[in-house]
User: Fold these one by one.
Assistant:
Number 1:
Amino acid sequence: MNDTADTTTGVTISRCGKCGTGYYPTRLLCPNCGANAMKPDKATDAVVEETTVVRHNAGQQNWQPRHLATVRTPENQIIVVGLEGPAPRGTKIKLFEQGLAPYGRA
Ligand SMILES: [Zn+2]
């Protein structure tokens, strides 16, 4: 995690201004209704579905294991986020962004 990057609450999604469906990653056209009326919105909560730990990275010194999770928002968006530590399946997390990268904390 890059501690110098700006941290903001929630992960940016796009939401259709016509039908209201939200998407992650962001879309330019709504697959639901075909409108090009996407507006940025935030997803702030999610539930952990799967986790993995990245233990090695070729060529990196002092590599610390990184926890990643596949999480699902209440709107069924699937987002792969970095976690601050291990979190079992079913854990409710709060989403945030550091720079442009999505993260979650329990
Ligand atoms: Zn739409």
Note: The chain has one domain: 7-105.
Number 2:
Amino acid sequence: MSKTLRVGMIGYGFMGKVHSHALRSVNRFFPDAPAVEMTVICGRSTEALNSAAKTFGWLETETDWKKVIARPDIDIIDICTAGDTHAEIAIAALKAGKHVICEKPLANNVQEAEAMTAAAHEAAAKGIFAMVAFNYRRVPALAFARDMIAAGKLGTIYHVRANYLQDWIIDPEFPLVWRLEKDKAGSGSLGDIGAHIIDAAQFLTGSHLTSVSGRIKTFITERPLPGAYTGLTAATTSGKGKVTVDDAAIFTGEFENGALGTFEATRFAAGRKNAMSIEVNGSKGSLYFNFEDMNELLYHDHTISSESAGFRKILTTDGGHPYVNAWWPPGHIIGYEHTFTHEFYDFLMGVAKKVQPTPSFADGLYVQKVLDAVEASANNNSINTNVK
Ligand SMILES: NC(=O)c1ccc[n+]([C@@H]2O[C@H](COP(=O)([O-])OP(=O)(O)OC[C@H]3O[C@@H](n4cnc5c(N)ncnc54)[C@H](O)[C@@H]3O)[C@@H](O)[C@H]2O)c1
């Protein structure tokens, strides 16, 4: 029986809430995972922190993340803060002998991601592990699609077509939140949601992007400073700040296996809330996934006669589909939050068995290099930028 792992979580916003949910449920549904205790939640504002601790189910609070890392009873640091803090927290935690799970994108630039990966490499030699939280890998339909592709069901892969579309900042009066500032977020839609489809594409195909050609665009270059947003009425022109990240990113790429990819990440696709979709076409067939129907995978088998061929729906809720056996009977669908429970399950099993959980920081670093290459290609107007 492995010992209870005590968790310190830094950040209590959107991801803090989702990770808390996953930590509350992982031992209930995956009883083979080591037991976890939600020991301490950390944030900067005492009042909001106390409320989050109570609502999410944490035992203690702390306003200084360095004190969380210094605690000898903490085994795991869960990083749910904005990108500008990932490197400093993760490196300090790994050096202090804590396992680390860090939200994506791994860092705000390649240099930080390299330092984090070096720290993770050193820690792994001592049985201390780090993982980056690309949760879409843990959607059962996508994990099953990966298994089908790895088993050769699609044959030679020719195309990957991936989109991640949102619309939450179309209103020019939407305030300048941290996600719109380069020093805090690293990049805009590119790193925030583009990173997910880059990871998903590489995960599905088992192949890295080796070169890219990108365009990025900022449609709204100035926005009201946070606090000035009035929702329905126009904000005044005073109290505005500069948007320093992309609003949309589009790129093509080539994979090491020879396939071509097209990618679109935007926060300006009116009507699209969290529309992540990906299609893979190969010599023997195709697979299509759309997150809004996340329990389904569309599969076309191109080896059967064309009269009866066509996309058919696989409802990935059978006990044999990845992760699903832990949940409900077939056909009783699961949702967004379950992907994070799966993520923690894989992370905890890696820690318990002393096997590197994936995606590793090295995987996160590679995604960061792709993001960097897309930005370089767009800024230099280069049609072919190598990922290095
Ligand atoms: N996996 C996903 O699908 C997904 C979705 C959304 C966000 N994210 C990632 O999760 C991370 C956090 O995003 P979010 O949406 O939760 O943001 P958020 O703004 O909702 O929350 C960020 C939290 O970090 C805290 N924080 C910031 N600096 C801190 C510091 N120095 N010390 C302690 N706390 C600090 C803030 O107080 C807040 O609680 C980002 O890296 C983001 O890209 C991942």
Note: The chain has two domains: 5-136, 137-358+365-380.
Number 3:
Amino acid sequence: MRSIYWFRNDLRLNDNLSLNLALAKSDAILFVYVHDIANEKNCPWGFERLGQHRRLFLSQGLAELEEKLSKSGHSLNTYVDDSVTVLADLVKKHKIDTIFCESIASYDEAKQIEGLKAQGINVNSLWQSSLFSNDQLPFDINDLPNVFTNFRKAIELSGIKPNKPVNTPEKLFNTDSITDNHLVLFNVKTIDYQKSSFPISYKDFMGGEKAGISYLKKYFNSEKPSTYKKTRNELMGINFSTKMSPWLSNGFLSSRQIFNFLEDYENKKTKNESTYWIFFELMWRDYFRFIFKKFGNNIFHKQGLKFFKAKVEHSTNNFNLWMAGETKNEFINAGMVELKETGFLSNRMRQIVASYLVNELACDWRAGAAWFESQLIDYDVYSNQCNWAYIAGCGTDPRGGRHFNIDKQREAYDPQSKYVKFWSRS
Ligand SMILES: Cc1cc2nc3c(=O)[nH]c(=O)nc-3n(C[C@H](O)[C@H](O)[C@H](O)COP(=O)(O)OP(=O)(O)OC[C@H]3O[C@@H](n4cnc5c(N)ncnc54)[C@H](O)[C@@H]3O)c2cc1C
């Protein structure tokens, strides 16, 4: 069989189930990455969908993937274009039988698959981005609990365990290569990320599978996992949380790989509430993925999942002040400056600036989600949309949304104003 392997948010050779399947079925294979042209256009809120930080992180990872494929006798063919058009042309040009790829349960990505199938192209897409696979779940996806705690309890009671990660398939090295000799690299600007909690200009924090795995090893060789729960709400620095999300979101690492290291750490070093909490957070990640599967595009609507009737207003002026970090609140401004300058923000600060936008500035949560999409290096459609909806009362929060007291948050998490001073513009 002649195949295309279409890399999407799974830019790795290890623990890539869909890639393994493609190689197992193929005699000859063409590796493709399409940077969809939609990402080069502005979003409906009027700014770029893909900002410079994620663009840089992604391009670092793509360069590494291309190098690894070259070393194994293949090439990565990259395009900036409409995904369906490029893939359909390649199918014809190279007499391809099947396109293999990972399945993504979000609107634009599902439409791409529909577009290919509508042209009579065989597409084999496999769901692989969650810790637990679909068929491990102890319920039908339509019966997924609408509250996280019930999901977590059902998972824990069932006793299911994530599958072990798989290695790069040997067959990569003895499958014929098809090439289209096409490599388009992004225009990227490298700046100094010295102040960032995830400094992508440094070797240890670069995009790509190599840096991701090396970081994973270092993290689980340290004592950090055993204090994670105590530090995870801090605002600054590289040590307070696992910092896995940028590699996870771009698919340079899989959550099964992280779980595997975590389990090993618990067996050989320490097992405590903190190590459990890393698993707990990975379950949140899974939960939001499955919410997309259950509710489809509803999560993009103004009222989100419609469990509650949230008041959704919008003030363009307030939104612009928030994005620029020029609101009346210096704590919020510090967070927005950090996000804009580095592409990273702690979970605590994400919650605080989101609550401020929705509750104090009376803005549409979907605009906030779009700004995060543009800026975050760890942008992930499921985690981003569902966390925003949760805070706005349009998602799965059983309390109908979160309204933080910003002064109290500042007292608790930045009592000496270190964070505010660090990110203050003046
Ligand atoms: C408004 C808002 C928007 C967000 N947008 C994104 C996003 O686009 N991409 C993204 O990966 N995360 C998002 N998050 C979740 C969370 O803030 C980040 O995953 C986390 O801060 C990343 O840092 P870390 O890897 O050090 O996390 P850790 O605290 O070390 O957590 C370990 C892992 O658990 C998962 N995780 C942790 N918290 C959450 C959560 N609340 N929801 C889902 N998964 C979680 C992540 O995969 C993370 O890497 C968002 C949160 C909020 C409140």
Note: The CA atoms of residues 314 and 364 lie 5 Å apart.
